[in-house]
Amino acid sequence: MAQTVTIVSRQQWGAVAPKSREALKDPAQKVVIHHTANPSCKDQKECMNRLVSIQRTHMTEREFDDIGYNFLVGGDGTVYEGRGWGVVGAHAKSHNHESLGIAFMGNFKVDMPSTEAMSSVKRLLQSAVSQGFLNPKFTLVGHRDLGQTECPGGQLYAALPQLRGT
Over 95-143, what HEC string results? Predict the structure, then answer.
């Protein structure tokens, strides 16, 4: 039986409309795990405020069309819609047209990701496969596997095997 995950919609967290959206042509082949590299958030109110800030930074300073990630997850395990399913992200240069970008909200250079966040991402991946948005034989990588960055932080990177084989 497919796992379900509740996702806080863009409208619910107060996202502004994207400048444009491009659909993925096929189910994503790869999942790229990120961290937001800012302080973690522990509840929905704090996380929703952080999301608005991240989207603003991505759209104004980085000149993205929208928040870069497809989904983000807070420390309490709540999943938030970024660009959403089947949309090309702006999270891993040269890999956005084949991947789903999921960001853990917080800085995981030293901090460990919460059990709740890890469980929610596992359910999100299972849901993506069951809905046809993610190839069942997907590969899961940390952002650092695709470019010169410390992202998703050493502690989260070390925990990635727990998400593989989901």
Answer: CHHHEEEEEECCCCCCCCCCHHHHHHHHHHHHHHHHCCCEEEEEEEEEH
Distance (Å, whole) CA 113 – CA 123:
15
Distance CA 39, CA 54 (A): 12
Determine which helix (DSSP H) or strand (DSSP E) holds 10, and give its type and residue range. helix 10-13
CB count, 10 Å around CB of 165? 7
Q: What are phi and psi of 103, to 5 degrees?
A: -110, 130
Give yes or no for a contact between 117 and 104, defined as CB atoms under 8 angstroms apart: yes
Q: Please give the model's pTM, rounded to 2 decimal places.
A: 0.95
CA–CA distance, 83 with 65 (Å, rounded to integer)? 10
Each residue's pLDDT tens digit, 50-84:
999 999 999 999 999 999 999 999 999 999 999 99
Residue position matching structure tokens 């189910």? 27
Distance CA 82, CA 9 (A): 8
| Residues paired with 34 in a beta bridge | 103
